[in-house]
Amino acid sequence: MNTGIRIIAVLLCFVSFGVVCAYGAPPTPSTPTVFTSIDFPGARTTAAEGINRSQTIVGFYSDSANAIHGFTLSNGNYQSLDAPAGMSTAAYGVNDAGTIVGTYINFSQHGFSDLNGTFRTMDFGSILTSTNGVNRSGSMVGFYSNSGSDLQGFLSQGQHFSTLNFPGATRTGPNGISGTGVVVGEYHDSANHIHGFVLQGGTYSTVDYPAALLTIATGINSSRVLVGIYLDAKGVRHGFELQGSVFTTLDFPGASETDVNGIDDLGRIVGDYVDSGGVQHGFWAE
């Protein structure tokens, strides 16, 4: 499952409605209702993380030896995606031009982008970097660290690099960026509680699912529909969608836990879920 800020090492091993409404009036509702499982052939587990308008889906899976690989799914065809010399790879986002972003481990953790087989490593921190989202103009967001504990967010736009830190947070992890440049993610407060956030026009806003133990914003589209994950009072994980000030829980039918990890401009979502037997699958929904 996508627990907290995205670090492969971990994988391997109330809301202010006025504030939330500040990033736009409610769009026309488009909550997904048809869910389809995604399982990489032969994989033990699968997670879908990103989707573009062409319905190319990216994510990661674990093989029979529990090694982590990235993947793409397009027109029903699955392909593995592994960083050159990487020991583990995860793909987290894809834009409409086909640029894929993610992270890989090769003794340390690196971010990457990949366009039609042209692979580029992205290192902003001396300890780790993860590139988590990319929009249609090629702007990328993620996080980096120089100590392993001081996680800071970043926005990369061509040759321009900006550090993103939620005010007063101990850790900041951007997860997605819309076509209009709105950034969403998660931050840790001084008590180590995890909250979602929206960054628009230089202004940060907190997003907390009502009564949740934690909230993570994972994606946002150009219609200002935000998706993410929350932990309920019993410690169960659920996906959610936020349109304007209205939250909707999104759970894969019959699943024991659900993560919603991404959304495209057509309102289609991707994520992962755990079935009654404890097996993790990816999914997409429309």
Structure report:
The structure is a single chain. Strand 20 (237-243) and strand 21 (246-250) form a beta hairpin. The chain has helices at 8-12, 17-20, and strands at residues 35-38, 45-51, 57-62, 68-74, 77-81, 88-94, 100-106, 108-115, 118-122, 128-134, 140-145, 152-157, 160-164, 171-177, 183-188, 194-200, 203-207, 214-220, 225-231, 237-243, 246-250, 257-263, 269-274, 280-285. It is globular. The strands form six sheets. A four-stranded antiparallel β-sheet has the order 1-24-23-22, with no helix packed on it. Strands 2-3-4-5 form a four-stranded antiparallel β-sheet, with no helix packed on it. It has one domain (8-13, 15-285): TolB, C-terminal domain (Neuraminidase), CATH 2.120.10.30. It is built from two helices and 24 strands. The longest helix has 5 residues, at 8-12. By secondary structure, the protein is mainly beta. Mean pLDDT is 91; it is low at 1-5 and 7-27.
Secondary-structure map with pairings?
Elements: H1 8-12, H2 17-20, E1 35-38, E2 45-51, E3 57-62, E4 68-74, E5 77-81, E6 88-94, E7 100-106, E8 108-115, E9 118-122, E10 128-134, E11 140-145, E12 152-157, E13 160-164, E14 171-177, E15 183-188, E16 194-200, E17 203-207, E18 214-220, E19 225-231, E20 237-243, E21 246-250, E22 257-263, E23 269-274, E24 280-285
Antiparallel strand pairs: 1-24, 2-3, 3-4, 4-5, 6-7, 7-8, 8-9, 10-11, 11-12, 12-13, 14-15, 15-16, 16-17, 18-19, 19-20, 20-21, 22-23, 23-24
